[in-house]
Structures are given as structure tokens and as C-alpha cells.
Amino acid sequence: MKISKIEVFPLTLPMKQNFFISGGKVGDLGQGAPHVYVKITDDEGAEGWGEARPSHRWSYETLESVTTTIEHYLKPVLLGESVRDLNRIHRLMDRSIAAGFSKGMPIAKAAVDMAIHDLLAKHHGTHLPGLWMGTFKDTIRLSYLISTNDPDQACKKAREAKENGYLAIDVKIGLNPKLDVQILEAVKQAAPELYFRADANQAYTLTEAVRLSREMERIGVDVFEQPLKANDLTGHAELRRKTGTPIALDESIWSAGDLIQAIRTEACDMVVIKVTKTGGLKEARLCGEIAKEANLGLLGGGLTESTLGLTASAHLFNYLDLQIPVDLNGPFFLADDPAADGLQVRDGTVHLSGREGIGCTIAEEKIQKYAFKRE
Ligand SMILES: [Mg+2]
């Protein structure tokens, strides 16, 4: 079971709507969304598929950097290596692309890690949870994503979420900080009983975050996600001491080491687990297990991956027994993608197929159809 081929496919997938966070546009209706698919073939002819979804307004990785990182730096050190030795595969990847402040180029590494997991599970004749000696669960609940500058639109969307059977709402804030309180109030009024997550994506200073967190206490927001810059753990710890609103960290946690620093500095109440930001399923699972042992709350998220990344993440979140509906929001934005069969999304619930590996079939004609072309 040695890696004999690694193929990288940069894609532009069609979108249904634009997607904004406080840092700017992360997906464009006109231009489509950047995704990178990876196919790994072993010397017995078995195939595994993985996916990266870089968003350069969210972190520094781009479609181009993910593609060249895998092609020029990861592939040369991985060819000929055993698929069975996942620790060694990660050691080789981390030596080839060294760490910066945290893990280096994690989104690129995640696509390789995902493809190796797909291949390994297929070799064992089992699905992902089977590979981890966990049981298969066939559903997971999604949260409903609201990202708008307009309080009336936020209210309409929150009502829609409720009517469509969603149990949780994830609101992007900091798009226009002057409107944050109005938007939060509109959402709470329209759907008061839904779990309420407000994600700032690092938009605020400590003073602004303290002020806003007190409004959140009054409104009844359940969690304030990543209010401050990613490297400001002491600021998040100070914010926690000044508010009753639970604080979650997302962009601050890229590895198990980052999580341990956050625990030591008492910087958060909850942590957002994402497969691709931590360099793949291996580290994301470790982060989830450490967070649980530290009695932190767990939130599940993604970077609008297509069906392939969504299915892999959903299996991991079920394995970790996440209780709060997860923010895997690719289907909110993507009009089509090359992966099928892994799952179906109906009424705010993901229904997983439980097929071998990650469980997706990849339509290679769509890989050709959506191949990235520089204008
Ligand atoms: Mg987030």
C-alpha cells in the first residue's frame, strides 16, 4: 500500500449566492469558489480523494498556493510512502512545509490527509468512523447561516431557518459593526428558541468586543465566536473575565498545540473544530478529543467545502459526538460539485450514506468541467 500517484485538481465551483464575512467576500457568485481536489492512487490501484477550500480573506492560503504546495512540496516527499503510516505522512508534510506561527499550509495538507483517510478506510472495507473504531451515525444537524448587512433581511432569514426546521443559527457579524446590535436583535426576535452563534471573524478590538458582548448578554446570544485577532489569546481571556457570554475560538486554533495554549491561558469556553484548518482529520480529531477532556464546548464548522469535505467533516463531528448543530455550509452556496453519494441535505439535516471510505463518488467529468482557468 504505497503511494504511487498524487494528482491535484484546482477547481472553480459555481455558486448560488455571494458569501461575506467581516474580512470581505469569501465566495463570489460571478466568479465561483476556489476548491482543490486531490486524488491519491496506491500501488494496488486503489484511489482516495480529498478536498481543500482556501479562502484568502479568511486565512493566507489561496487556490494557487494550495495547488503548488501539494504539487511541488508535498507530492515529492510522499510518493513511495506507505498509506498505512499516517503519522509519518504528517511528519514528512510538516518537515517539507515548516510551521509559521502555527502549522504551515494546513489547508493544502488537509486535502492530502483526507485522501489518505479515504484510501485507508476503503482498504479496511469500512467507513471513516469504522477506521476510528467508532459507530456510524446516519444524520447530523446543520445550523443555518446568515450573512447580511440588512436587519430586515436577517429577520427574514431567521424566520426561514425556523420554518425549515433548523435548530441553530450562525450569524456573521462585523460586516458593518454599526448594524451588529440591530442584526442580532432582529434574529433573536424572529427565532428566539434557536441556538444562537455570532461569528465576528476577528473584527473587533477588546473595547468593542466587551461592549458588544454585554449587548449579547441582554439579547441572549449563546456564543460569541472569534471576536479578536487570532493571536490575541490574552485579549480573549480578558474578555471572558468581563462578560457572561461564552467565547469560542476558531481562527486562533490551528493545531492541538494552539488549543493547549488557549486552555492554559483560559482564553475560551468553546472551540470550533474544522477539518481543513488543522491540516486534516488526524489533527482535527485530536483537537476535538483534547477540548472534550478540558471540558470545553465543541462547535463544528467548515470552510464551505463541497460534498466531499462536508461528508468527511460530518463523520468526524458525529464521532466526536457534537451536540450543537454544525456550520457545514457548502450547500448554502454551491450550485454544483463533483462529489456525490456521500450524503443528502434535507430540512437542515445531513443524511450520511455510510459507504466505504469517506463515502463519495467523484464525477471526473465535473473535475474537467470546473477546472480552474486563469482569466
Ligand atoms: Mg468561525
Main attributes?
single chain, 375 residues, Enolase-like, domain 1, TIM Barrel, 3-stranded antiparallel β-sheet, 13 helices, 20% strand, binds magnesium ion, Mandelate_racemase_N_dom, racemase and epimerase activity, acting on amino acids and derivatives, magnesium ion binding
Helices, strands, pairings?
Blueprint: E1 3-13, E2 19-21, E3 24-27, E4 33-42, E5 47-52, H1 63-78, H2 86-96, H3 106-123, H4 128-131, E6 139-141, E7 144-146, H5 151-163, E8 168-172, H6 180-190, E9 195-199, H7 206-219, E10 223-225, H8 233-242, E11 247-249, H9 256-264, E12 270-273, H10 281-293, E13 297-300, H11 307-319, H12 330-333, E14 339-340, E15 343-346, E16 349-352, E17 361-362, H13 364-369
Parallel strand pairs: 7-8, 8-9, 9-10, 10-11, 11-12, 12-13
Antiparallel strand pairs: 1-4, 2-3, 4-5, 6-16, 14-17, 15-16
Helix pairs in contact: 1-2, 1-3, 5-6, 6-7, 9-10
Residues 199, 201, 225-226, 250, 272, 301 line the site of magnesium ion.
What proportion of the residues form beta strands (DSSP E)?
Answer: 15-25%
CATH topology of the largest domain, anyone?
Answer: TIM Barrel
| Alpha-beta classification | alpha/beta
Helix percent reads 25-40%
Q: Helix and strand string, N-terminal first?
A: EEEEEHHHHEEHEHEHEHEHEHEHHEEEEH
In the predicted model, the low-confidence regions spanning at least 5 consecutive residues are none
Kindly provide the radius of gyration, computed on alpha-carbon positions and rounded to a whole number of angstroms.
20 Å
